[in-house]
Amino acid sequence: MNCTGLCLSTKVTNGYLDHTLHVSNLTAPILNGTPTAGGGTDSDDEFLQYIWREYLYPKLYEWVFIIGYIIVFVVALVGNILVCFAVWKNHHMQTVTNYFIVNLSLADILVIAICLPASLLVDITETWFFGQTFCKVIPYLQTVSVSVSVLTLSFIALDRWYAICHPLLFKSTANRARNSIVVIWIISLVIMIPQAVVMEQSSVIPELANKTLLFTVCDEQWGDDVYPKVYHVCFCVVTYVAPLSLMFLAYFQIFRKLWCKQIPGTSSVPLACKWKPRSALCSTHSQDGPSQRTFAAEIRQMRGRRKTAHMLMVVLLVFALCYLPISILNILKRVFGMFEHSDDRDTIYAWFTFSHWLVYANSAANPIIYNFLSGKFRQEFKAAFSCCFAGVQSHKNFKDQASSRSQK
Fold first, then answer.
1. Which of 87, 255, 269, 294 has its CA 20 to 30 A from that of 286?
2. How many CB atoms lie within 10 A of CB 386?
């Protein structure tokens, strides 16, 4: 979960230290070599060529990751902006659940716009170029975004659980949702301060610190080995294991209510809801049944709640799957000290980079899920794209008309 500080320096710390003995053979002449007529040393070119060939120039699988990052960046940024615009534009979509979905999109926009470009550059070049200040700010913002996402999903699950399983205990309102969002951001900004405190910029080869930015890393610096172990175990439990366990439990109860039992808060019509086609979704056998109109409204309400619950369950499942690899790798590295002396540098790096990419891919997945599983979002997305294409076509027609008039 704490993937920024981990993944931004994974390629260097997991492989480079095993190769420093070879690199030091090249750095020694640079530090103590004979100046050439050009002002450098005899080994400057050799060293830089080695660095470019072995570390900086992207390998084939790194080009795949670069393309993947670009796709995620575009889809996530455009998709989440459309989500925010759709809810802001349409009053009928300004529901409690959609307020939380917008908050989730804002957290995704934050991490995509600020953290993803830095992560990609560092993953490929193995160097932190952004200085000490951003070494603290960017990992901090990434962990804040993770916390906001987890807490937002938790509040959504809690809201749906109350609305469907215990509708008389708590009434959710838009004002309460907005207040909850403010609380989510305050909590996230406060509890992630330790992440900013421990992040430090350093050079893998101190002798080169004053000569080049190459192999400057941004990583956690702890005073004692026990502190990172405690911190990362607590981080994983608090931001992944515990909330996801509670959310899955909540959605399990919601599933039982919506798919197997009568919906609370409606009339006492016994709805025997089983696995049936939509045309035969539920059956009723009440002797004094309600009017046809009331019964149809109940069926529409149940179908609407089912669709919403289905979409939110998919969002939660995708979130859990996208964050699972980095959570496991983080614990293995930070708590158990694995990968420090591994000989298979490229494989380890590829796994870390892929798991890091999955974290960002989750931000792109959410708008896609909304598009496929929510008719209202799909309609608004289509309207937005139609408006854009219509504007482009109108501009093109205007230019064509102006060009034809000028030719006359």
1. 255
2. 10
The terminus-to-terminus CA distance of the chain in angstroms comes to: 65
Would you state the structure tokens that stand for residue 151, as one six-digit string? 């807490």
Q: Is 80 in a helix, a strand, or coil? A: helix
Contact 318, 247 (CB under 8 A): no
Question: What pLDDT score was predicted for residue 399?
Answer: 61
Per the listing, tokens 């930070």 go with 334
Residue 402 in any domain: the answer is no
User: Is pLDDT of 340 > 60?
Assistant: yes
What 8-state DSSP symbol labels residue 92? Answer: G
Confirm whether 382 is domain-assigned: no
Residue 402 has what pLDDT?
55
Domain that holds residue 112: 3-32+42-374
Q: Positive or negative, the Cα torsion across 361, 129, 43, 45?
A: positive
Yes or no: say if 218 and 122 are a contact pair by the CB < 8 Å rule.
Answer: yes
Name the token pair of 204.
Answer: 């893998």
Nearest to 156 by CA among 119, 189, 135, 181: 181
* CATH number of the domain to which 285 belongs: 1.20.1070.10
Give the predicted TM-score (pTM) of the model.
0.79
Give me the number of domains the chain comprises: 1
Q: How do the residues of the chain divide into helix, strand and coil, expressed in percent and rounded to 5?
A: 75, 5, 20
Report how far residue 75's alpha carbon sits from residue 83's, in angstroms, rounded to the nearest whole number: 12
Minimal CA–CA distance to 221: which of 196, 204, 198, 195?
198
What is the distance of C-alpha 307 from the center of its chain? 23
Instruction: Supply φ then ψ for residue 202, to 5 degrees.
Output: -150, 165
Closest CA to 247 of 374, 361, 161, 362: 161
Q: What is the pLDDT of residues 9-46, one digit of tens each?
A: 444 443 333 333 344 444 554 455 444 444 455 556 67
SS3 call for 219:
strand
Residues 6+ apart with CB under 8 A from 47: 26, 27, 29, 30
Paired residues of 201 in beta bridges? 218
Residue 73 dihedral angles phi and psi, to the nearest 5°: -60, -50
The answer to whether 125 and 218 have CB atoms below 8 angstroms apart is no
